[in-house]
Amino acid sequence: SPMDIFDMFYGGGTRKRENISANVEHQLGVTLEELYIGAVRILAVQKNVFCVKCEGRGG
């Protein structure tokens, strides 16, 4: 139907929005040479997430 095509492009208007977290910034030192040739770095980041069932109250 025409509405199916509209929903494909515009999401149907009934979808629940996902929570968007704030941006996290980390300083990472690299040399100019590493930027030029391409360097690989591994960055480990922890993220605290509340349990959906108990909402972080431990129940």
Automatic annotation (TrEMBL):
Q: Which Gene Ontology MF annotations are present?
A: Hsp70 protein binding
> Its GO biological process terms?
protein folding
Q: Give the Gene3D superfamilies listed for this entry.
A: Urease metallochaperone UreE, N-terminal domain
Record-linked PANTHER family: DNAJ-LIKE-2, ISOFORM A-RELATED
Which protein is depicted?
DnaJ-like protein subfamily A member 1
